[in-house]
Fold ATP synthase mitochondrial F1 complex assembly factor 2.
Amino acid sequence: MLRSSTLIGWACGNASWEYVVCPRGQHFGSAFKYSTATAERKKFYQDVSISQGEGGVYEINLDRRKLKTPGGKLFAVPNEALAIAVATEWDAQRDTLKFYTMHMTTLCNTALDNPTDRDKDQMISAALKYLETDTVCYRVDEPYGLVELQKNEWDPALHWIENRYNVTIGASSSILGPEIPEATKETFRQHLNSYNFWSLTGLEFVITQLKSVVLAMAMIDRHLNVEQAVLLSRLEEEYQIRQWGNVEWAHDYDMYELRARTAAGTLFVHLSSESSTVKRKLMQD
């Protein structure tokens, strides 16, 4: 039987992190506080495991403490596959906890606590707003090289999603972007409504990273891989770098970070839709 305790962490957006570990009957006068989400703290546990709780959900255990959300809820995910992904993040931490690398944990916290108190309809509406300013739909008139690059690289993705969902989106060089037909919005609304709340949380995260519904859906549907989608989302920036050069370390860091967030969000969508049990050990010696 697991010892009763509380483990609280905050991992939402750019908010600060705060962790408190309080076994039953013991209280600490101060908490470990951090001003930014990029802060680190000394690792305070040795073993990570998962266990199945009531209702078929899966919980994360750090030593014999059960993980809880920033809002104080039990950290319980809907299937074993997602639990393994989260546990792997915690197990991968070494001497210090790098909270900013734990994207799966962050997304689970968001789904469990729902800090903005939104329902599925509101999440779908927010996601669809990106269609009006979608990265691949907004085109430039000059320079010629970038115009051609956008046409050659973005048009295939745009044509794919129009054919895949039988919709019209189009592209425009107007600052207002293309005028999206209501029929297109309704088609996507119905499609997104088929996702559960957890999957929508991940999908919305991917859309905001790429600033594109087109690229996000192409990746979720496995038409594009993460590297391709990220490069397409940064097409104009990559063009400018080719022309004028760049600060190499900053460019590489931004690229790797975007890939990591996008990959985590995509994996979260697929795993949160997973219904089968993963029958394998969590950790290997």
Observations:
- The longest helix spans residues 248-272.
- The mean pLDDT is 83.
- The longest strand covers residues 18-23.
